[in-house]
Write a sequence for this structure.
C-alpha cells in the first residue's frame, strides 16, 4: 500500500541529521574494519559467547550469520564494523540494516555487542555511537520522506548495563514482546475450515502468494512493513518447510476483492492473473541450537497471520493446530512463538486459549525521527 507522508514532516534528509563522517571507536585499543563473509565463523563465536554470558535464550548457527552477508540489499563494507584485538580476534561488532520495502515508516535496525572479557572499557558506547551515526546516514540516503525509526532489541533480563546504554543514547522502550510455549503433550484441537478454505502444506509454488497474504495480514501491526520478494525469501537458513502450512481460498470472491479498496495492488494483480489466493500462513523454523538452552525441543512458529478480510474464520487456530501436530510427529516437546503484547488482532487471547504460556520477554528500543 502506498503511504502519503504527513505534510508536517520535514524531509528525511533534514530529520535524520546524518553526520558527514562516522566516529571511529578508540576505546579498548582495538583495530576496526568492516566485516566480511570470511569473518562469519569468528563472529558466530563472538555472538554466542555474548549470548551465553548474558543468559540469552538462543544461540546462532553459522548459516544464520552467513545469511546476513548474503542479502542483496546489504553492503557489509559500509554497514558493519568489527573490532579486532592484537591477535586479530574479533572482540566487538556492529551491523546496521534497512529493508527495501518500507512504505509507512522507514527503519534502521542496529545490532552489535562486546565480548564479555572486554566490557567496561567504553567500547560498547563508542560502537553504539558509530551504529547510530551510520543509521542516520542510511535513513537520510533513503530519500523516503516518511516517519523514520532507529531500532534495537534487548531481552528483558539482559544485563542492566545494556538497557542503560540504550537509554543514555536516546532510545526509549516502545514495544514489548513475549516468547510463548505450548506443551505438545496436551491434546491438540481438531478444526475444520469452512466453505472453500483449504489447509495445505507450504510449497515453493505458493510462496509468493504467502508473501502477499503476510503483507496484508500485518499491515495493521506496529513496526511491520511490506516484504519485497527478495526480502521474503532471504534469511531462511533455519526454515522448516515440513512444519509450515498455508490456507488457500479455492473459490475466492474475486470481483468483491477487486472492488474492495483495502485490497492491495499486488494482490489485485495476482487475482486478475488467476493466481492462487493464500489467505493464511504459518511458517516455522527449526532452531535446534536453541534446544539445549531452553532445556527442551520445540518447533518455532516464525510467522502466523490471516488476511484481514478473512479474520474471524479460525484460520490461525487451524494453522497452529496443524503445525503442532507436525511438531509433535517429529518428536518435539513444545510449540513456541513470539507475540507483540499489544497485537491488534487479539493474538494473546488466541494463544492463551490454546494453552500457550510466557517463558521469555524482550523489548524494542527506538529513536523516532
Amino acid at each position: 500500500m502506498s503511504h502519503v507522508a504527513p505534510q508536517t514532516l520535514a524531509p528525511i534528509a533534514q530529520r535524520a541529521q546524518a553526520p558527514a563522517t562516522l566516529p571511529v571507536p578508540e576505546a579498548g585499543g582495538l583495530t576496526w574494519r568492516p566485516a566480511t563473509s570470511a569473518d562469519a565463523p569468528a563472529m558466530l563465536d563472538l555472538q554466542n559467547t555474548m549470548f551465553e554470558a548474558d543468559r540469552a535464550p538462543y544461540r546462532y548457527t553459522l548459516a544464520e550469520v552467513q545469511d546476513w552477508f548474503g542479502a542483496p540489499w546489504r553492503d557489509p563494507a559500509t554497514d558493519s564494523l568489527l573490532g579486532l584485538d592484537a591477535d586479530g580476534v574479533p572482540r566487538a561488532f556492529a551491523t546496521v540494516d534497512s529493508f527495501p520495502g518500507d512504505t509507512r515508516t522507514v527503519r534502521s535496525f542496529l545490532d552489535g555487542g562486546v565480548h564479555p572479557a572486554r566490557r567496561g572499557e567504553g567500547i560498547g558506547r563508542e560502537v553504539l555511537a558509530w551504529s547510530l551515526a551510520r543509521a542516520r546516514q542510511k535513513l537520510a540516503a533513503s530519500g523516503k520522506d516518511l516517519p523514520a525509526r532507529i531500532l534495537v532489541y534487548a531481552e528483558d533480563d539482559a544485563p542492566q548495563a545494556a538497557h542503560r546504554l540504550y537509554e543514555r543514547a536516546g532510545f526509549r522502550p516502545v514495544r514489548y514482546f513475549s516468547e510463548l510455549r505450548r506443551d505438545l503433550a496436551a491434546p491438540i484441537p481438531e478444526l475444520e475450515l469452512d466453505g472453500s478454505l483449504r489447509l495445505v502444506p507450504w510449497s515453493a509454488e505458493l510462496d509468493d502468494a504467502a508473501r502477499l497474504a503476510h503483507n496484508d495480514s500485518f499491515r495493521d501491526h506496529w513496526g511491520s512493513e511490506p516484504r519485497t520478494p527478495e526480502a521474503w525469501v532471504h534469511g531462511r537458513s533455519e526454515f522448516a518447510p515440513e512444519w509450515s502450512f498455508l490456507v488457500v481460498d479455492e473459490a475466492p470472491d474475486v470481483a468483491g476483492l477487486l472492488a474492495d479498496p483495502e485490497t492491495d495492488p499486488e494482490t489485485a494483480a495476482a487475482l486478475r492473473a488467476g493466481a492462487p489466493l493464500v489467505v493464511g500462513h504459518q511458517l516455522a523454523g527449526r532452531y535446534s541450537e536453541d534446544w539445549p538452552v531452553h532445556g527442551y525441543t520445540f518447533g518455532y512458529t516464525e510467522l502466523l497471520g490471516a488476511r484481514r478480510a478473512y479474520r474471524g474464520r479460525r484460520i490461525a487456530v487451524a494453522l497452529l493446530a496443524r503445525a503442532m501436530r507436525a511438531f509433535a510427529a517429529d518428536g518435539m516437546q513444545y510449540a513456541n512463538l513470539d507475540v507483540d503484547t499489544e497485537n491488534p488482532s487479539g493474538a494473546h487471547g488466541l494463544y492463551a486459549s490454546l494453552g500457550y504460556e510466557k517463558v521469555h520477554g524482550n523489548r524494542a528500543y527506538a529513536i523516532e525521527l
About this structure: Confidence is low (pLDDT under 50) at residues 1-6. The longest helix spans residues 123-142. Residues 240 and 285 are 5 Å apart (CA to CA). Residues 12-170 form a domain with the Aminopeptidase fold (CATH 3.40.630.30).
